[in-house]
Structure formats: C-alpha cells, structure tokens
Target: Gene 25-like lysozyme
Amino acid sequence: MSLAFPFRIDARGRSAEVFGDDHIRDMIEQVLFTVPGERVNRPDFGCGLLQLTFAPNNDALSAAVQMTVQGALQQWLGELIEVEAVTVQCDDATLNVTVQYITRMDRDRQLARYAKELA
Model:
C-alpha cells in the first residue's frame, strides 16, 4: 500500500492509497514529469521531459528524449521495472508519453500512457 499520486483524499476522507501496478504507474509519472532540481532532497530526480517540449521537433531530439526518459526510468525505477520501449509525442498543447515495461516482481508486461497539458 502506498499513497496515491497526485495526492488526493478518497471517499472515506483519508489519504487515497494505491496498490501494486497502480503504484508503479504513479512512480513512472513522477519520474517523467519532475524537473531535475525540483525536489529538495533529491535534486537529480526526474528526467526534464517538460523542459524539452518546446525544442524543435526533429528525429535527433526525439531520439535524445527517448534515451533520456529511458535512462531516468532505469536509474530511479530499475529495481521495479525493466523498460522495453518509450514513445514521446507532442500534439498541439499535449505531451503524450507511452512506456512499455515489464515488472520485475511478476514479469508482467505493462503499457502505461500519460498525457500532460502544456498550456
């Protein structure tokens, strides 16, 4: 059992909780959308994905973003997941990220999709 991300209150009036795969998805989201330097006690946490959204869209940037995201996920969540593929697309004012991974505990293949409004 872990606290839900983003933090919220559940129907019982308590801190919302998540379990298993939902917790892993929450942790992936935190790594993806946390800017390095944002966390006080972990200044290198995150991958800086949001900082790259307004850079020119080309193949080189796309490859760099994919490697940066995959490296950050391996660094911070490598004990829990094995990253197979990362896809990052920017559509108008929305950043779409798809992460395909295998959970190390039960070897289940998972696909997580995240969308972040940029405006």
The first strand starts at residue 2 and ends at 3.
